[in-house]
Write a structure and sequence with these properties.
Elements (H helix, E strand, L loop, with lengths): L1 H50 L4 E2 L5 H7 L3 H6 L2 H9 L3 E6 L1 H5 L3 H9 L1 H9 L2 E2 L12 E4 L5 E7 L2 E4 L2 E9 L3 E6 L8
Parallel strand pairs: 1-7, 2-8
Antiparallel strand pairs: 2-3, 4-5, 5-6, 6-7, 7-8
Helix pairs in contact: 6-7
Length: 192
Amino acid sequence: MKSSNTQTRLVKRTIKKFQTIALMLLVTPALLVLSTSNAIAGWNSGYYACKKTEIADVSDLTITEGAEALGLNVLVSVIPPDVAELLDSSENITVFAPTDEAFGNIPTDILSAIAVNDEVLTTVLAYHVSPKLVDPRKVLYIRKVGTLAEQNLFVNRARNAPKVNQSNVECQGYRTANGLVWVIDSVLLPQF
């Protein structure tokens, strides 16, 4: 009788161990999925919040008027009149517009070299303009975007924010009468 009781207890303990192991095998993957999902959700939440930001409608303004209304004073001041006319008369264009601080971050000697040469200035400005509508917030992988300077920009996202080349793009875009304006934190320099 004792051996039968001992065998029964041994069988019950073994069953409990298997039940515990089976439970762990079921729970562990579920915990991994939950922890991974939360990490991914946290990482993506900034992307989705940015992507869902409504584009502000300033369609009563042209591209240059929109840049001026946004307080991009340095950009507006360096645009030659013929380039401003081209920007304002073109349809469905995208302008990546540097902030005043972005111009302040350019080394003085480079800024002087750009400012004194109209051809170089026009090329730099044209490098900020795409002849089509571009929404950098919706790009998941690196995407080439042609510019009026006949060189490509590279739009992508890093961490939770959209980028163009190495510049950060603000989530808030602006729809003007003839295109889109995206504010960026640095001046884009083409290859010469």
